[in-house]
Design a protein that fits this description.
four-stranded parallel β-sheet, about 15% strand, binds ligand AN7
């Protein structure tokens, strides 16, 4: 493999041999993938683990894991001659679709649940120049509309029902095996539409088949308590949670998630908004990792299992799916900041600091 710093980066370059690419697939990239795997500095013991690692998917070009799958879905759409793409989204898929569409000169249509998308994600969809439709309904309604619209019009659907999304997202599992030298014993991951847990399980299964790992991780999926259809076993008609990214009542990859859970001997459980926000604050204050609320669900879940005495050492990786900057309103609502005004003088600042 080339080691030149000028060599092209990205999922379509690094992982070409495990993706369904052809000579005609355009090798597009925004530099996605190859995200850091960082060892926990503070929460490892509290989570009852010997080793806890964070996969910083927030370091992708649009600030979430969606870029890994989107780059493959968009490249394959272009290969098939598409000029336009569409997705339904709680915010991150739309930000990612809009970015790759802008990059590649495609039209991009995004259907979002009205008033429920975090401000930073809306800003991204606007800045990248997508056509935004606010649906009078939730994500599940938006996805139903997007499926029907793309069946009827010459527009490629780039939600994770598109198998190329899953193909691209599985590369994160390969990266984890490559970095650790094996799969971890456990993988903690937030679950919304369930594409990502499906993709990771596919990736880890492939790694084991190829001899890149000896372990199959137990897949530990966590849903928000107000949007936990995979825990209750029935769709939630009016999902609700502070973690708007995973405010999804009828996941498209339902069977993929259940398969990942059962084949891996894992579990899919619910964490309350309070537990999510506790983990959100701990990640920022103790680990220096500012993630969006949905991402904190993976760590909230580990903390919850630990409190119940259900983690007994071993090595876990928690997927931190999206950047905290995407949802500034939740951040500011979480804290009463201790900010003191001062004149622009040394004396003024000293007085303010009580020095
Ligand atoms: C930060 O953007 O569904 O279980 O439309 O943004 O694969 O859906 C986002 C999902 C976790 C859940 N963390 O992943 C969308 C969307 C963050 C997310 C999930 C999402 P899936």
């Amino acid at each position: 493999m080339s080691t030149s710093p000028l060599a092209p980066r990205g999922v379509l370059y690094h992982w070409a041999e495990v993706l369904p690419l052809t000579g005609q697939t355009p090798r597009i990239t925004l530099g996605e993938g190859d995200t850091p795997l960082v060892r926990s500095a503070a929460l490892e013991g509290q989570c009852g683990l010997d080793e806890l690692w964070f996969k910083l998917e927030s370091c992708n070009p649009t600030g979430s894991f969606k870029d890994r799958g989107m780059v493959v879905a968009v490249a394959k759409a272009m290969e098939s001659g598409a000029r336009a793409i569409m997705c339904a989204s709680t915010g991150n898929t739309s930000a990612s679709a809009a970015a790759y569409a802008a990059r590649c000169g495609l039209e991009c249509y995004v259907l979002v649940p009205g008033g429920r998308v975090a401000a930073g994600k809306m800003a991204q969809a606007i800045a990248y120049g997508s056509r935004i439709i606010e649906i009078d309904g939730n994500f599940d309604d938006a996805l139903n509309a997007a499926r029907e619209l793309t069946a009827k019009h010459p527009v490629a659907l780039v939600n994770s029902v598109n198998p190329y999304r899953i193909q691209g997202q599985k590369t994160a599992a390969y990266e984890i095996c490559e970095t650790l030298g094996d799969a971890p014993g456990m993988l903690a991951i937030p679950v919304g539409n369930a594409g990502n847990i499906t993709a990771y399980w596919k990736g880890f299964s492939e790694c084991a088949e190829k001899g890149l790992s000896t372990l199959h991780p137990r897949m530990l999926g966590f849903q928000a308590a107000g949007a936990a259809p995979l825990v209750s076993g029935i769709p939630v008609l009016e999902p609700n949670t502070v973690a708007t990214a995973i405010r999804i009542g009828n996941p498209a990859s339902w069977s993929g998630a259940i398969g990942a859970r059962d084949e891996s001997g894992g579990s899919i459980e619910a964490v309350t908004d309070e537990e999510i926000l506790e983990a959100y604050r701990l990640l920022a204050a103790k680990e220096g990792l500012f993630v969006e609320p949905a991402s904190a669900a993976s760590v909230a879940g580990l903390l919850k299992l630990a409190r119940a005495g259900r983690t007994r050492g071993g090595r876990a990786v928690a997927i931190l799916t999206g950047n905290g900057l995407k949802d500034p309103d939740t951040a500011t609502a979480q804290y009463t900041p201790d900010i003191t005004r001062s004149a622009a003088t040394v004396e003024g600042v000293e007085r303010a600091l009580g020095w």
